[in-house]
Design brief:
By secondary structure, the protein is α/β, with parallel strands linked by helices. The chain is 51% helix and 13% strand.
Length: 985
Amino acid sequence: MNNHAFLQRYLAEKITHQKMAGSLSRLSSVLAKASIELNPYQIYAALYAFNSPLQRGAILADEVGLGKTIEAGIIISQLWSEGKRRILIITPASLRKQWQDELSNKFGLNSEVYDGPSFTEKINNGERIPFTYEGVFIVSYQFAYARAGLIEKQPWNAVFIDEAHRMRRVYRGRDASKMAYEIRRIISGKPKVLLTATPLQNNLMELYGIASFIDDKLLGTPYSFKTRFVDPLSEINESNSGRLKELRILIKGEDSESQTSISGILTRTLRKDVLEYVRFTARKSMTFDFTPSDEEVELYEKVSSYLQRDEVAAIKTTQRNLMILVYRKLLASSSFAIAGTLKKLIEALEKELSLRAKEDTYQDSTAFTSEEVEDEGIEEELEESELDMAEQIQKKEKPRINREKFSNEDIQKEITELKSYYDLAVSIEKNSKGDALIRALKSMFNLAREKGWPQKSVIFTESRRTQEYIAGILKDNNITYTLFNGSNASSDARLSYEKWGKEFPEFASSGSFSANMRQALVHNFEKSSQILLTTEAGAEGLNLQFCNIVINYDLPWNPQRVEQRIGRCHRYGQRYEVLVSNFLNTRNRADRRLLELLQSKLNLFDGLFGSSDEILGALESGIDFERRILEIYQSCKTPEEIDAAFDTLQESLQGKISDNILKLRSYLTEFDESVKGLFKRTKFDMENALSELDNDLVRLCDLALDHGIKKTDNDGVYEISCNGDKHLMAFRNLKEDEIGKIPRAHREHPVLNKIINESLSIETNPIPSIVFDYSSANKKISQLESLLNKDGFMFLFKLKVNGIETEDILAPLSFIKEKKEFKPLDLPTANQVLSLNISKDACFDAISELPFSREELLSYWNNWKSQSLEIYQKKNERLYDREIDRINRYYQDYSLKVDDKIAKLEKELSEFNRKRDNSADLAERRDLHKKIQKLGLDIEKLRIEQIKLKEEAFTKKQKDLEELEIKFEIATEEKMIAITHFRII
């Protein structure tokens, strides 16, 4: 056994032991592992969630663009590293892939995405049932609602809900919001993290609804919350300031930075708060007009008129909304996109006629399936509920085209009509918008050259056929491009992947193929081409901050889609002004009004931050807005009709959030001026925690590999020799040009993980002797100077505390020899000793006997343990009192609604009694007597209900109190894991 066995075991234990929830050092390994630079406010948000009372969870409510998914990724990574690996993410369908990419690319976490068909396919293949094993699972709201029973049964370690403001109407009850109500029910009792940029939009009850997902008792019942807070705070003034402060503490937690302060359930950072850490560049729009040819206009008008009909044979009623939306997007995209679709419609109708002629059983005459939607590259534009409908059409038998509505002659006539449209479409060899694209690129590249910007652009299109057309005209104009879409299966993509794999073999040998392919194509765009030509679905989750020109070849109708596109480039790390280019069809009035609405009213393309949270929040997912645009295109034919419809739509967006709500939002959810100091401290603590981890890892490698780790000329980068192989590794944050080229050291890296695990198994028997070199400190440490040339013993104890939180406490109990007896060292001094390097030259023999008894050692250990547990309990005492108050307050108000009704009726009863006693009219007295009798009966019924509610409240309260007592019980495990004899020279 080597003399440094104790130190090696200590370092391995220190690196892996579980720290307390609010400690930044708990996250240090995860922060090191992340492949992006993390900001202090993101670290703070993750710590806030971990520090939530009784680990119920938190609402992360940062403004748009600050990286709430990154904050969630930090939390998920930490849970995973702690062995808590049952994670569920519920998100809008369109964001599922983005979540998967973010977790994979930024945190190295694999995940599984499920929808209805993929779930059914896995079950039918006899594979294990999803969600019943460890993993990160990503599903949509609709899927979670449909599979509520299965999800409810799983022991989730954490549930994440993205775009959580969609759940805010849950306070209205099951009838008003069945999906929100059911999702809240099935994840009740599980730790949760909700993400939303708009936690409070129109009224306080929305905040109550979102908060009830985290803690359904904190703010009381819906009625008591309305009575206690909503009504009194309808106008903020001095008289209700106490009530406002009370609500802020419940929502935000205590402002004190004391270790015993208690967190709330919501944290929110604004973009203006983090300008010191995130440099936001401006965005500027450029519009390029184009005038389509007569043939293009003829094609558009004919197909548009066809789509405006109430019924056509090629589009089934069950598919109509979905398909019209798809066809409209393709029609606006290019003649090439709509030509392929027209051909499919013709083939579907011809198939129907063939089946009728043969009187065959129906197989599938679907005009356009979800697979074909995906082929167009616009699948992510559609809501999952609509996609599910299209997917079911593929799998289930559907009625044939109704013979009574559409005869064979009707269908043949429609085929002839569609063929004329198709012939017209294929006769158009070039599109005017394509010519405008080349003009736009030349103009913007000239501007980029003048300003010293990269001559690169991302071009977005909604159709793969249009993508192919654009690729052709780029090639004709000698403009290099990288093609990017949902499949990335082209020969050029494979060549890019092979080239990337040769350049970065270590990264190519790990991770998922699809994630690596995406990284390879982005690398190819960054290093070798001018254009990234991408579809909507392909680009989700990409970070393209090295490019600052965004071109919307096809303009989405959903404003949030536009924001997400621009956000690929206009994000943290962007150094230049972002140019956003759009194209305007001068012969299409509706297109002009749509662009004006997105640009002027919604302010999507210009300014420092783009569209505001108020606007995006008011639009919800953007789907309703998109459907209203579709209605205009479908129903309006004249310029006057189009203008009137867009005027009406614009007026509906005029609603302003009330000043009172803005004040409430600011006070209840946002930081005050102290936030800057808070983030500075977080940054300081984060840097210290990472530096300490890196130092510990380097020291451990040096001991375990017998000096098999060497510095390189690149500061902080080491060469590790292990099992005959050499590995370069950075024991510091990576520089921008090192990302993807040099691995960042973290404890889960295969090489380091092996060293750590082997070191954790080291035994110190017989007791080794180690010599610490004081000169290695390179600074004066007063506590250690008096210990020079003295001997001592060190005992490494590990105390695991299982209570509300689980925490490992490492205690190197140390004794130094003073004259003839050993005296204890305080723990900070012992840690200072362990921070010293060992002497490479000096050594002395190991010993097998201790100079004092086991009883003396245990007595000292027990005293230290008692003091540690007392500190652990301090925060718990205040939290316990708050929890008791929370339970008492909730059940005190349990019957408040009935109590108020009784009080109101009793007041009416008293008034009727007074009137009756003072009335001289017999008829009036008799009438009042009847009313008194009825009121008395109503009051008695309410009192019976009141008694039942109070009994119910008492029973539930007792149960909650019993469960609370169990949660606050503490169990400990303790073990002495290493011993050493030491000397300091």
